[in-house]
Automatic annotation (TrEMBL):
Flavoprotein found in the keyword field: no
Transmembrane segments: 88-112, 118-140, 152-175, 187-206, 218-238, 250-273
GO molecular function: zinc ion binding
UniProt protein name: Transmembrane protein 163b
Amino acid sequence: MTDSAPPDSTAVPDGVLVLDPTAVNGQCRQENIQQPEQQAQQPSTASQEEGFKMDQEMKITDSVDDRGLLESSMRLKPHEAQSYRKKALWVSWVSIAVTIILAIVAFTVSVMRHSASAFGFAFDATLDVLSSVIVLWRYGNAAAVHSAHREYIACAILGVIFILSSMCILGKAIHDLATKLLPEVDGFLFSVSIVSGLICIILAVIKFMLGKVLTSRALITDGFNSLVGGVMGFSILISAEVFKQEPKVWYLDGTIGVLIGLIILAYGVKLLLDMIPRIRQTRNYERFE
């Protein structure tokens, strides 16, 4: 009897493919090594893209500043900018017509009723007329809609007008306080204060909206002036009502006039301090004029 040899455990049946475990494990290790590397590369790639975008934005901003343009030139298309420019012109014309009427009426009220607030409002209305005229000059040239140099000149002129007007308002209010001038109250004064206050606030809101879209400091300043006019219009109503109820508080009218004069003076000084250096920086871009 012949002993049969035990089967070889290492024998491989025919047709079976054998993979080298070391090769498989090596490939797995290599893949496992490569995956963290790829994951590490993804954040670096994202950060590079963000850095590239920031560099591009900085280059665009620098190029805009170098050309003496406002920020609106980056956000508005040419036809949009011209459309808003025409709206600014229309608002300025309406503001001039309305505030001239209000200024005449307010001057009349201040003389007839001895109201320092009415006098201050009349001067502010006159200032509003001048500021709207400056806005007309600012946007009168279609090619200069984004001109920073033209914008800064308009703001500097507004600053000078603000300072001169504040001097007149302060002088009148201080004089009335020193002489203890008592305001006279009637229905005419109430109607003038309400109408003028509402109209000026509406104009202020429209000017603020247009100024924000066009990034125009001149339009925003014009809107601020209209807002001050609206506040002064209602201050006439408040001071008159308080005096009617408490005659001892006769000084409220003059005090409001002093406060408004100081606010206009501070705003005018700030405009000049901000705009004069910028005018010097952009004086080489007068081609937009």
